[in-house]
Amino acid sequence: MAADAAGAIPAGLTDRAVQVVRAGLAAAIAVASDQGLPTAGPRVLSCRGNLIVHLVPAPVVARVATLTGWTRADPYRWLAREVAVAGHLAKRGGPVVAPASRADPGPHRSHGLAVSLWDYVPPSEQRPRPEETGEALAQLHLAAADFPGQLPDMSPARELISEGLAALEREHVITQQELAALQGRHSSVLVELATGNRSAGVLHGDAHPRNLIKIGADWGWIDLEESCRGPLNWDLAVLTCYSRGGQRALAAYGAATGMPTPDRQDLAPFTRARELEVTVWMLAMAHMYPARYRGQAQRRMAALVCS
Fold it and tell me: Which domains are present in the chain?
């Protein structure tokens, strides 16, 4: 495949992962062809939970549900929500990378995989400061507040974990003892999340700083496939547990929204749920990409089971 020569297939993958990447490239190329976009020089930008392909020379990126194609019961549904929420935000002038404007963003079904199309944003080495991240999340929440479509309740803490655990069990990735421990932890965090009276709204779902990229002079969110409705504290917990300067990010968020800033105790149940979600995701990644993720997955699993 021409994309292989451009370094499309990363090193250190299992044979199955290589097959998944090749299938994802084939799906992206087929959708590009159907949409009248170039197909001769696709360039892989990222190969993790999804395959991200720049359809060179068009300013369009294909997002293919590869790994998520087996960790989620219906990956098409997750991409459809992402396109809908991001499209709404883009129309409202919200901080987001927009669905493709030169083609039907989909999502499309191709080669048994779900594929969505997005406007291409040139890569930048610049990373947001905590204050910029907090303000960008505030802008997203404000712009998404009147989203009219249906969204699930807290899907990252619910379906994403339960479906991920089902995939790990189906593929015999973990032992029954480990599975039982993770399922027990999931039940516990869901009970925690059900308590309390918290401000709710439309969530990004995966609002860590690495999902915020430079768009010209501004910042825009990507990877909204975990969009849902739920307590705003979920996004704030994700934001702060992955970034230095978390308190500065929270202060900027509060200044932009006029909302009281939650403290560590307020965010703790959401942080625990997020840690479980990431552990399940990391175990799935290690199954496909052991060279990159096995050590991290094992450490996370040990820490979670022992805590």
Answer: 2-119 (3.30.200.20), 130-306 (3.90.1200.10)
